[in-house]
Amino acid sequence: MAAKVHTNGDLNNTQALRKTIEIRPDPAYARRTLAIPEDEDDSAIRAQYRPFLQRVDVASSDWVAKLELGTALKMAEADLQRTHGDRLKVMVLFGSMRSRSYSRLLAFECARILFRLGCDVRVFDPTGLPVKDDVQHAHHKVQELRDLSKWSDGHIWVSPEQHGNLTGVFKNQIDWIPLSTGSVRPTQGRTLAIAQVSGGSQSFNAVNSLRILGRWMRMFTIPNQSSVPKAYTQFTDARDPGVDDDDGYVEAEGGSRLMPSGNRDRLVDCMEEFVKYTIVMRQHFDLFNDRFSERAERESKRVKEESMKGEVEKAGQEGNAKTIASAELVNGIDVSGI
């Protein structure tokens, strides 16, 4: 007869859970930033890929500057020391070209958090990227996108949900990133964080599709994700530094900022989690790219090439060379001088 299990009212058997360790905030890291200082940043990169940056007086006092990110900052700081300043390289993609694109605004907020956490963040602008075809691989926007993908350690993907799924603008960017280029897989082993904005109620259709895309591109998609419903209600009004007074501009944090809410907290969770996973995985990049099937394929190719090389050499010796330039005797006739 089986022994009776006493749950003592613990129907979910929580007593079997692994004991968690509470990590308390470190006051020494309050307001700490690992962002690249302007005088140490590449001015061309800053101008082209960092449109999310705010004026110093805004960036030093906005909601991102006030976030408690001690654990991730400590990890990032230790990683910078270990790698001698090699920052995490993050490419950010968004999926709308509207003048007031909420996916772009959300992508900028992601970028600001990551920048504070010491990442080298570059936001790709899809404007001018041609529709995927088989003839425009040399287009400068296609090459720019592929170069950024190859450069990166991880990606942030933010798409609007339109007609129940991600937009064509976003999918077109992914379609231009090849799954493989020769023996190189441009996205394999990268980490990925995903988010969506919706015009209506809460939905997860776009992030579900983004997760499928990430898996297909052989990326490690973090468990957490962000979905912002009714995005038009979630951002503050745009502000113009040339029109608004300085005090008003600073108070508005530059304008077009994500308002306080559980949605904003979730976005911070995702960016923090993304940095942690990327730090852990990047140092083992080659390990995670090592697969049995690909090792077997490479070995089979190597054996085949060696076998073919041996056959060519043997053919030259026996007078059946495919090219007489590689043989001295063909059917017993000295052809070395021909």
UniProtKB/TrEMBL annotation:
<keyword id="KW-0560">Oxidoreductase</keyword>
<dbReference type="InterPro" id="IPR014063">
    <property type="entry name" value="Arsenate-R_ArsH"/>
</dbReference>
<dbReference type="GO" id="GO:0000166">
    <property type="term" value="F:nucleotide binding"/>
</dbReference>
<keyword id="KW-0288">FMN</keyword>
<keyword id="KW-0521">NADP</keyword>
<comment type="subunit">
    <text>Homotetramer.</text>
</comment>
<feature type="domain" description="NADPH-dependent FMN reductase-like">
    <location>
        <begin position="89"/>
        <end position="232"/>
    </location>
</feature>
<protein>
    <submittedName>
        <fullName>Flavo protein-like protein</fullName>
    </submittedName>
</protein>
<dbReference type="InterPro" id="IPR005025">
    <property type="entry name" value="FMN_Rdtase-like_dom"/>
</dbReference>
<dbReference type="Pfam" id="PF03358">
    <property type="entry name" value="FMN_red"/>
</dbReference>
<keyword id="KW-0547">Nucleotide-binding</keyword>
<keyword id="KW-0285">Flavoprotein</keyword>
<dbReference type="GO" id="GO:0016655">
    <property type="term" value="F:oxidoreductase activity, acting on NAD(P)H, quinone or similar compound as acceptor"/>
</dbReference>
<dbReference type="InterPro" id="IPR029039">
    <property type="entry name" value="Flavoprotein-like_sf"/>
</dbReference>
